[in-house]
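sry for the spam today, last one i promise. struct tokens for design, 468 residues
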């Protein structure tokens, strides 16, 4: 969400003046200034004797320290019968340890000017925390305690289960969430990446014992990374890491790596019935590649041209020209073993079929219509600008480095990403269009009222009812 928010804000700032303007810009405007490379920080790296990887980035600025702990084995490693159990476990890491209650943890964080969050995505369980630099030792102690010694108190588990069940009811009423769930099924099929959302069976199976067993199986130092960024000396940071995490031991057999996700899939047509809906929530896309694939950067640039910015082809056509949707967009998402491309467009019922026709045309245009110099330059500047802005923020930089490690990318990618994006050519963009954006290869998922839109869907195939 942080990335999308920054993308929208920076896209408006960089490109808003150029879009759909009826007044020509002055011809004597100065040229763009020279690109400024991202100042790449020195990343000190060390592996502790127990196998824990530690990256430290000393950084001047605010007197603050940010910490990220990532442990491989997220929702993709959860049992098929109880998907996203790791999300339940992550939510409860700071609700009590062997020596602290949830209140003790909250008060300790407040005393050091700290914050704390934990969660699980497809590939990893992650903790993100920060505090004043003068309290770095207390922060590392809290992170280590919650990561290594969670107690999963019965009363906290019961409360989390009640909240999760209420959250499921809210999700089921949200057409965007319904569309995302169906799209994951269409793209990933039986692959674990399709099972990234809680279900009632998972919540009912959650107990203190089941969470302890899951924690013990996942949390291993030889499958974990600790990132420390901020106003702290590297040697001091490594010393704190050794003090707090040095006794962490790997027990038992490590989980196997997640199998590669499909890079191709037979296109599906899925309809999630929402009787009485006045609009259709459309998702249009296919599987793609993991973050470590050579196509990652050129595909990112290509997607920006298609639908990743305010002057993108999707926005200019579907929003500005046709007026079908206020905020259509497309996204390329890449994880450790797979990825996907998807366009998201929410439209009123009457133009559902017309919107599908436009999406087909726009996706095919990525191969048939070369990117103009203006499109290519604008996309590169948007990609680079978002990246530079995002990683000037200390907490975002910490998360970026942790995500790189999870996705199988080296820390040096931090300094090469913008340069690689700037090397992308129009020919490469067209190649990405042929490989990933051909309309015939895209799955279509729609959440809407069948009675209102069935006739409009007939030209696009037979839509099966999706019922999870």
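last one done:
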């Amino acid at each position: 969400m942080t990335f999308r928010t920054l993308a929208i804000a920076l896209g408006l700032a960089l490109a808003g003046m150029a879009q759909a303007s009826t007044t020509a810009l002055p011809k004597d405007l100065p040229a763009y200034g020279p690109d400024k490379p991202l100042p790449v920080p020195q990343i000190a790296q060390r592996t502790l004797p127990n196998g824990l990887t530690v990256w430290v980035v000393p950084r001047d600025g605010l007197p603050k320290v940010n910490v990220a702990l990532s442990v491989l084995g997220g929702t993709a490693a959860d049992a098929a019968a109880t998907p996203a159990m790791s999300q339940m476990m992550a939510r409860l890491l700071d609700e009590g340890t062997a020596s602290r209650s949830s209140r003790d943890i909250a008060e300790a964080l407040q005393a050091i000017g700290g914050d704390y969050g934990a969660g699980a995505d497809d590939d990893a369980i992650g903790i993100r925390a920060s505090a004043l630099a003068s309290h770095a030792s207390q922060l590392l102690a809290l992170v280590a305690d919650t990561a290594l010694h969670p107690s999963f108190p019965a009363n906290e588990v019961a409360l989390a289960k009640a909240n999760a069940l209420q959250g499921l009811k809210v999700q089921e009423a949200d057409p965007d969430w319904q569309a995302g769930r169906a799209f994951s099924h269409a793209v990933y099929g039986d692959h674990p990446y399709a099972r990234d959302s809680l279900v009632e069976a998972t919540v009912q199976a959650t107990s203190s014992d089941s969470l302890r067993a899951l924690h013990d199986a996942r949390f291993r130092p030889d499958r974990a990374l600790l990132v420390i960024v901020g106003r702290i000396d590297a040697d001091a940071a490594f010393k704190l890491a050794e003090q707090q995490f040095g006794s962490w031991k790997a027990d038992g057999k490590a989980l196997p790596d997640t199998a590669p996700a499909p890079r191709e899939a037979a296109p599906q047509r899925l309809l999630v019935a929402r009787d009485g809906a006045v609009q259709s929530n459309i998702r249009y896309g296919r599987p793609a590649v993991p973050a470590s694939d050579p196509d990652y950067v050129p595909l990112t640039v290509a997607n920006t041209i298609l639908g990743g910015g305010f002057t993108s082809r999707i926005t200019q056509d579907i929003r500005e020209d046709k007026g079908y949707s206020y905020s259509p967009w497309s996204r390329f998402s890449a994880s450790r073993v797979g990825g996907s491309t998807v366009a998201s467009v929410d439209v009123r019922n009457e133009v559902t079929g017309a919107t599908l026709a436009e999406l087909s045309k726009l996706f095919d245009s990525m191969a048939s219509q070369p990117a103009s110099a203006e499109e290519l330059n604008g996309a590169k500047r948007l990609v680079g600008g978002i990246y530079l802005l995002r990683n000037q923020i200390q907490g975002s930089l910490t998360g970026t480095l942790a995500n790189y490690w999870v996705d199988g990318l080296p820390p040096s990618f931090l300094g090469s990403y913008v340069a690689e994006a700037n090397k992308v050519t129009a020919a490469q963009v067209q190649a990405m269009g042929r490989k990933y954006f051909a309309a015939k290869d895209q799955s279509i998922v729609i959440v809407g009222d069948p009675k209102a839109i069935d006739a409009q869907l007939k030209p696009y195939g037979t839509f099966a009812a999706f019922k999870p």
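The first helix runs from residue 2 to 15. ok im logging off now
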